[in-house]
């Protein structure tokens, strides 16, 4: 087992990467266009408000950032927690100096049982070769009464290949939680049919920044219309871009 520090490594050196706060809309998080692949600007604009709301409601106490990468969510949760622990692969595409624990996430975590008040696992599960073992490990290190915040894509292109293994329906997520005594508190789809179409087009144009910028502005304008939002709401259950889940580990009942 690893000896855990009380704070993320090199906290003072942390800088926003994937997400930044808007200069026009104070306090609102937006994709960092200097850091993010242009083809992903649109999908981030679709899910970011849901992610922020979820993290700021459920992040608390000692938090495990599971598959942390460059710790892009730190700015969203740092004021909600007492300490955080960051874990990821040594060969992650998002290597950084902030990792507290370097480990193969396809193996048992080198972490003690019942350690964390909250766990954040964003867009990681699709890269896990054995997701069932991963969920057992996640539940194991979560304290009774602790909350798991899990985000996964569904209609999404192949990325970080060859380590891109699965896509999950809401039914798979519910079963994986039930199998590990995790009670689903929230399970929300983000995006819908029109978002899937625009995200596909965005990915196709993403390597050309001269086209990506104007297309992103057009897509944002379309997505703000009432007709578009109605179509999104009507089709989110069948054509989700992804899901945001919160599940709580059951309290241990004392033995008489």
Automatic annotation (TrEMBL):
<keyword id="KW-0808">Transferase</keyword>
<protein>
    <submittedName>
        <fullName>Methyltransferase type 11</fullName>
    </submittedName>
</protein>
<dbReference type="Pfam" id="PF08241">
    <property type="entry name" value="Methyltransf_11"/>
</dbReference>
<dbReference type="GO" id="GO:0008757">
    <property type="term" value="F:S-adenosylmethionine-dependent methyltransferase activity"/>
</dbReference>
<dbReference type="InterPro" id="IPR029063">
    <property type="entry name" value="SAM-dependent_MTases_sf"/>
</dbReference>
<keyword id="KW-0489">Methyltransferase</keyword>
<dbReference type="GO" id="GO:0032259">
    <property type="term" value="P:methylation"/>
</dbReference>
<feature type="domain" description="Methyltransferase type 11">
    <location>
        <begin position="65"/>
        <end position="149"/>
    </location>
</feature>
<dbReference type="InterPro" id="IPR013216">
    <property type="entry name" value="Methyltransf_11"/>
</dbReference>
């Amino acid at each position: 087992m690893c000896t855990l520090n009380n704070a993320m490594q090199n906290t003072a050196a942390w800088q926003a990467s994937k997400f930044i706060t808007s200069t026009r809309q104070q306090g609102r998080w937006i994709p960092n266009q200097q850091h993010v692949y242009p083809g992903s600007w649109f999908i981030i604009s679709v899910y970011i408000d849901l992610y922020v709301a979820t993290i700021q409601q459920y992040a608390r106490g000692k938090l495990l950032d599971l598959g942390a990468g460059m710790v892009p969510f730190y700015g969203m949760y740092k004021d909600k927690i007492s300490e955080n622990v960051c874990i990821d692969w040594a060969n992650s595409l998002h290597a950084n100096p902030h990792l507290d624990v370097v480990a193969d996430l396809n193996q048992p975590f080198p972490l003690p049982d019942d350690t964390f008040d909250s766990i954040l696992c964003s867009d990681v599960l699709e890269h896990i070769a054995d997701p069932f073992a991963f969920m057992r490990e996640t539940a194991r290190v979560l304290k009774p009464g602790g909350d798991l915040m899990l985000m996964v894509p569904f209609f999404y292109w192949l990325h970080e290949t060859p380590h891109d293994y699965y896509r999950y329906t809401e039914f798979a997520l519910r079963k994986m939680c039930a199998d590990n005594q995790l009670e689903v508190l929230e399970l929300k789809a983000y995006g819908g049919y029109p978002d899937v179409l625009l995200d596909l087009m965005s990915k196709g144009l993403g390597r050309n920044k001269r086209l990506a910028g104007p297309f992103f502005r057009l897509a944002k304008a379309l997505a703000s219309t009432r007709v578009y939002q109605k179509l999104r709401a009507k089709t989110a259950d069948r054509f989700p871009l992804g899901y945001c889940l919160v599940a709580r580990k059951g309290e241990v009942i004392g033995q008489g």
